[in-house]
Design brief:
The protein starts with 15 loop residues before the first helix and ends with a helix. The protein has 98 residues and is an all-alpha fold. Helix 3 runs antiparallel to helix 4. The protein contains 4 helices and no strands.
């Protein structure tokens, strides 16, 4: 997923706290390192990237990767897909920052 595909998202409506709350609620209800946290983290990561908060967005994607690697294994297709996405995002963000 390309970094610029989410340019329609922003925090003009004050939604960022809701994304953070969704992650916190999933972590509280299911545990911080469970599959139930993945989707809320992905949503938060996308918003962070759109808001040009690249370090926070990457951190969320890295946590998704870590959760998937631990719960699904390194060879699972979702884990591999997340790893490839992380590498692509790191490259794109590096280009944007420079």
């Amino acid at each position: 997923m390309a970094l610029m595909k989410f340019n329609a998202l922003n925090d003009r409506d004050g939604s960022l706290p809701h994304f953070r709350a969704a992650v916190a609620n999933a972590e509280k209800g299911y545990g911080a390192n469970t599959g139930a946290v993945v989707q809320p983290l992905l949503n938060l990561a996308k918003v962070m990237l759109v808001m040009k908060r690249y370090d926070e967005g990457l951190a969320a994607y890295k946590k998704v990767y870590d959760i998937r690697k631990k719960s699904l294994g390194a060879d699972h297709s979702d884990t591999i897909e997340t790893q490839k996405l992380l590498e692509k995002l790191e490259s794109q963000i590096s280009a944007v920052k420079n």
